[in-house]
């Protein structure tokens, strides 16, 4: 069905990547400041969604606390900048602190398994907000704290928004490339195995516990990186940054973009940024209602997320193509389409149940 | 390389239910060993104890002389134990090749950082294991299915894919849980040929849980018969089939008397 596409793919993909890279590098120079700021915010949240996707989309562990790590990264960044640390050190500290906290939480939570992990992750932003208000020496309390470190240097000749765009571009591109290599190959298969069936994963030599801890820690590191980018873009953070509602929005963005898909994470970031803008433009009084309607519409039409759109379109066009060619013998056409016409549900695990009974002595 | 297995007084209780009671036997390296018994005899439970999915309530299980009971399955897998499941447990939306490749996990070196950075040796080992998986599929006559999603294959082929997945780990001890369940007659013949070939080509110990007496007779060097969680007898498959206690366990005392 997609053999022709896969044969042609490498070259097409290379050209597309080159075009995309040039477009991304040229974009901030050509676009107005407002567009740049929107793209910057997409990059910020795409990295957070990417992390969430690794732990939830790929490994199947419910994480409702991703925003906590974004906020943590943002606070660490603000603290480091205001204490005059080197900016690279600030970046690594933001990732490392978030990763370390994520690791500790995961070491405890992954032992519990199932919904317990979800409950622990709910607690993170709920505890995080009052904690951020209390620890005012570090966080500036309810007022929040600001840190300016992304003004364009004079030698660059760039505007601030263009400079910030390049910072976000470099960090998020690196995050996406690393995540992409990770989920292809050994660890991608291990994540999927733990998601699908822990007993099978274990019998392949994959420790479900360690794999969950790994995925959760990676998600936290990406959350920290996203927090760094958040502060680079917004230059201000407050307890509001890590409120629970944002965490749910991140989750919705991941599902809408495409769970278990790297490209879907980028679409998720775009959804996170664009949809509130869109619903505000429709009617500011009805934002939540229209957001819910969009969420439902996407989930009904594209259960695999926005990233599955090309696949669905291809399937529909193929189906109408076969329908048009009714002149062909029926057997031939039906042979060509079964995978497209009957998308077998993901879980049909207990098929051999009857066969076992037949086989009794 | 083939591993030996030794069970000593293995018991397993779930609450008050005694699933296994004082089961002992030894499996020498390189043999094909059968574990038979009527439904509910505790065969699969015993399997799960050996593979580490259950922890025996008492007794010891040692693989090549090292104590294995109580170790998590992932550690046993790294020691060279592989298994298939009674109900094939594949990732149905992943390709057949990806499913088989999962079996190569323990043979791929490097941690998550090396893989995320795509260090040359990770790419090399991934290519090598991929080639090997494709060869396995090719020899099994499944090369055509490598890129298909697993859910497009029949139940019989699912069982095959599970077997190739287990073999990609190059196990020293392979546990097959009802490999013939739900297979057609032809598929069972094929399975027998495959396991025979395995034994001549690889240094491997194989333990089979099975109802299919044809398969057990054709393949196993020795069998242990379980009934109600106890070892009923051990010997060759032929001895087991003519043993009155075994016949009684399978078809009941009265029927056995009638038959006699």
Automatic annotation (TrEMBL), chain A:
It holds the Pfam family BPD_transp_2. The chain crosses the membrane at residues 42-59, 64-81, 87-107, 114-132, 163-183, 213-236, 248-274, 286-309. It is a multi-pass membrane protein. Its main location: membrane. Keywords: Cell membrane, Membrane, Transmembrane, Transmembrane helix. Residues 318-361 are annotated as: Disordered. This is Branched-chain amino acid ABC transporter permease. It is found in: Cell membrane. It comes from Arthrobacter liuii.
UniProtKB/TrEMBL annotation, chain B:
It holds the Pfam family BCA_ABC_TP_C. CDD domains: ABC_Mj1267_LivG_branched (cd03219). It comes from the Bacteria. The keyword Nucleotide-binding applies. One of its GO terms (molecular function) is ATP binding. PROSITE patterns: ABC_TRANSPORTER_2. Gene3D superfamilies: P-loop containing nucleotide triphosphate hydrolases (3.40.50.300). Keywords: ATP-binding, Nucleotide-binding, Transport. Residues 5-253 form the ABC transporter domain. InterPro entries: AAA+_ATPase, ABC_AA/LPS_Transport, ABC_transporter-like_ATP-bd, BCA_ABC_TP_C, P-loop_NTPase. This is ABC transporter ATP-binding protein. It comes from Arthrobacter liuii. The lineage of its organism: Bacteria, Bacillati, Actinomycetota, Actinomycetes, Micrococcales. The gene is livG.
